[in-house]
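[audit] Reproducing an earlier prediction to check determinism. Same input, same settings, fresh worker. If the tokens differ from the archived copy the diff job will pick it up downstream; this log only records the rerun itself.
[audit] input (499 residues):
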Amino acid sequence: MQNERKCGILLHPTSLPGTEGIGTLGRDARQFIDLLAGMGMSLWQVLPLTPPACGNSPYSAFSAFAGNPLLIDLEQLANEGDLPHKISLGQFPKERVDFARVIEAKQSVLRQAAASFFSNSRTTRMEEFWHFCDTSPWLHGFALFMALKQHYKGKSWHRWPVDAARMAPEFYEKASSELGPEIGAQKYQQWQFYRQWQALRKYAAAQGIAVMGDLPIFVAYDSADVWGNRDIFLLDEKGKPTFVAGVPPDYFSKTGQLWGNPLYDWTVLEKQGYAWWIERIRQMYNLFDTVRIDHFRGFEAAWHVPVGERTAVKGKWIKGPGAHLFDAINTALGKIPIIAEDLGVITPEVEALRDHCGYPGMKILQFAFDSGPTNPYLPHNHTKNCVVYTGTHDNDTTLGWFHSLAPAKQKAVLDYLGSDGRDIVTDMVRMVFMSVADTAIIPFQDILGLPSADRMNTPGTAYGNWEWRFSWESVPQHLSASLSELLEPYGRHRLAHPN
């Protein structure tokens, strides 16, 4: 019988070690999967793999369908003959991603690889490439969008000439022809990303590791999605948003969070049978075994902030599609495994939607100690159908979080854990493993016991996020054995058999 109590690690591939200035889908990713398997883990959770746009955030991407070409492993391109073996990108910091330098260096090399590939058309790989193009209906629109962005010096699509911004049919055909080489390079990068990712996912599956993806509810305004599907978003006649997304004041910010994403026109989407969303979900399950939907509560009601507001305080809740969307998805795709990120302002209506769909919600241990014994995030209040974390990519590391607490709050945490405080991170991790929740996820920073300087993201800040990387030197040699021993008593070890 398969063990139903699972455990996994949260680590975005950009945080992997390597020589390319950013983590890739190459040998270090395979080594990380080996590490997970050695620990007895059964899940690897990643952040969105889409190409980041504003602020290098994976939650603000140029496309909801495309992959991040910066993750492409250049060693594999060299092994296939598209690059010389001794190519060098230069020297990069090992502990952070310098996105500006990595983008400049790596994009140049990827275009070089694409030119080499297209110069040798008599290969079976070319047949594979064209099959990928023919079976990826989103691909040409995305490649054209990126080619136009380069042509117009990186400007947002609403600043392009009118014919380009409105994607007039005659302009579409002309640009597709005139920008052919760059469009081809963009398609090549997507093909290589997807084939490398699928090979890595196959390697993970062979090791008993399932991969959990992450789907942001909203898309970036400056994206191929909005440019090519203006009718399904709340935009004015000039293509500019009338309202933007965010959340009201909460744990992370006293003025809320003003995300700035355009909001969906759910009336139009319903008339279209939610086709765009169905295709988006279908794409996610081409890539992952299960998917976490970020800001799930936005499907019940989303926080609409009028354009021009400087904070999210003056927004209001507007109803979303609710169960109608997920019923349509289930009808089209069958029952698929989804995790609902149900954090923040959660109402009975949101809980009812989550429970109607049967999706597990999330429990964050760092949120558990501020409202007494009835706090739903305390382990004694957990249910089996949920996913428990010490913290997420938006939280401080557990070590940093604990040290930021007032002494009285620290004492409350220690009393609950029965801890003497000498190894608070391990004690918190152990408490997560003890939970009745079917699934437990630990950020890799907490596995390594790292401080605040190593957190992935600080919500509400524009700079310095998403850059963290680890090094193999920081991973203790005994880590696999010690984590395996920690998992075993709580029935979460991948090789454990329930009684």
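[audit] rerun output stored. Observation attached for the diff report: The chain has a mean pLDDT of 95.
[audit] end
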